[in-house]
Design a protein that fits this description.
441 residues; globular; 28 strands; Methylamine Dehydrogenase, Chain H; binds heme C; single chain; mainly beta; 4-stranded antiparallel sheet
Length: 441
């Protein structure tokens, strides 16, 4: 998407081009570390200098691509973030499991506006080429078109189940893909799909557009290229791998990358649809996110808490994404019942130490005896900052007896109950011991 005021950068680029007749240093392998959960989407700015990441840890990260400077964290979603895109004027938009679409001001890292209306998780956001409208797709089965100035929206319904992806053509038609297997083309002035581009039979997860063609990837591994004008199939790239979870087109349009649930990335030459590269990008786990850099490298996100950048110009074997050492994979026979409860039900969102490692929820270090919502530096919901609760054996037991939605209504912590009093008691005893500040032990 057009980046804000590209002219000064263009002038600078022109000067550099005169000074440096040779191609600038090629990009190197690197990772982007800091998220406290899997990376669900990645996007690169038009000038190639900035990366956005969307994570299960409820945050969006804003990173410089060219150096190791710390990211800016965009906090505002109340659940996992699924999709993020750059908009014009130094802004971005994201959609999440909290059913919300958030418009971000990247200059100061704040949430400028939130669009509420979807009744299910938001899977994709896509700015209209004209820049005034943002489309969002949701598992509520609808697409909404938001006027970025007024915040008004119109609803497009036509899919029989969740909408997984949306993409605009250059001339302002919208294409959508659904869990119902349908790929529709919409003239957004009318409220029903204008044309059916495909009926795949299995849910379609991802869409990418090239000149005159549309690529889609589906739950059953189906990966097809269609002629956009006629709907005719130009190529079938389906391999024995599923589901297809991510797709990206290189800046020059020459390469289409496809990521799947088994951790592979396939790169295809769009001139003749032959596979130019196919590698195991993750040792274990899916590739949810893909984007090409301005220099032709690939940035991917998946089960690991880091995004990976692989330059694709060399012949060398690319280092695979390591699986994050998830605590809930610990052998259940080796730990106490209380620890097992924590590992399985809490550790994906909470740490226990003082180190401030990022997670969706605050660290539980020192939580006993502390008032709800008081840890410095964590962006709590009003439900916790406005609460009089003090965390202790009784209140934490109660939290999971009745559920966070009842004890702290409006909290960002998902609904969860632990039915067995013994499991709750063991969990509380484990937490009490392991979250006690070192000097109090
Ligand atoms: C999917 C993520 C997630 C899971 C799983 C989760 N939490 Fe949380 N938890 C959060 C978030 C987010 C908050 C902050 C809530 C808010 O601001 O509304 C939170 C807040 C808390 C708080 C209040 C902390 C404070 O400083 O006020 C406690 C206590 C807590 N969680 C305990 C647990 C325990 C124990 C478990 C496991 C049984 C658990 N949580 C599972 C996300 C999670």
């Amino acid at each position: 998407m057009p980046q804000s005021d590209p002219k000064p950068r263009l002038a600078l680029a022109a000067c550099l081009a005169l000074l440096l007749p040779l191609k600038a240093q090629t990009e190197a392998f690197r990772t982007f570390e800091g998220h406290g959960g899997p990376v669900m989407d990645v996007a690169i700015s038009e000038d190639g200098a900035t990366l956005l990441t969307a994570s299960f840890d409820y945050a969006v990260g804003l990173w410089p691509v060219g150096d190791d400077a710390a990211p800016v964290w965009l906090d505002g979603h109340r659940a996992a973030v699924n999709d993020v895109v750059f908009l014009a004027d130094d802004r971005a938009a994201s959609g999440g499991d909290d059913f919300a679409v958030i418009l971000w001001n990247l200059a100061d890292g704040t949430a400028e506006r939130q669009f509420n209306g979807h009744q299910g998780k938001v899977t994709a956001v896509a700015p209209h080429p004209g820049g005034q409208t943002l489309a969002s797709a949701s598992w509520d089965g609808t697409i909404r078109l938001w006027d970025l100035t007024s915040g008004d929206n119109t609803v497009l319904s036509g899919h029989d189940s969740g909408v997984n992806d949306i993409i605009w053509t250059a001339d302002g038609y919208l294409i959508s893909a659904g869990a119902d297997g349908a790929v529709y083309l919409w003239d957004t002035a009318s409220d029903a799909p204008t044309r059916t581009l495909a009926e795949h039979g299995f849910g379609v997860n991802r869409l990418t557009l090239g000149p005159g063609w549309l690529a889609y990837g589906a739950v059953d591994g189906g990966t097809r290229i269609l002629d956009l004008a006629t709907g005719e199939e130009l190529a079938d790239l389906t391999l024995e791998r599923r589901p297809i979870l991510s797709m990206a087109l290189s800046r020059d349009g020459q390469h289409l990358a496809v990521g799947d649930g088994e951790g592979y990335i396939m790169v295809v030459d769009t001139a003749d649809w032959t596979i130019t590269r196919d590698f195991r990008a993750a040792v274990n786990g899916p590739i949810w996110a893909l984007a090409f850099t301005a220099e032709g490298g690939l940035i991917a996100g998946g089960i690991a808490d880091e995004a990976y950048l692989w330059p694709l110009d060399g012949e060398e074997t690319l280092p695979a994404m390591a699986e994050a050492p998830r605590a809930f994979h610990t052998d259940p026979n080796e730990v106490s019942n209380g620890e097992r409860q924590f590992l399985r039900k809490c550790s994906i969102c909470h740490t226990l130490g003082p180190d401030g490692e990022r997670r969706a929820g605050p660290t539980l270090y020192g939580v006993f005896g502390r008032r709800a919502g008081e840890l410095d530096g964590y962006a709590y919901s009003d439900a916790l900052t406005g609460s009089d609760l003090v965390w202790g054996e009784d209140t934490i037991d109660q939290l999971f007896d009745v559920g966070p939605d009842v004890l702290t209504p409006g909290s960002k912590m998902p609904m969860q109950q632990i039915a067995s009093p013994q499991d709750r008691a063991d969990l509380v005893a484990f937490l009490k011991e392991r979250t006690a500040p070192a000097d109090a032990k």
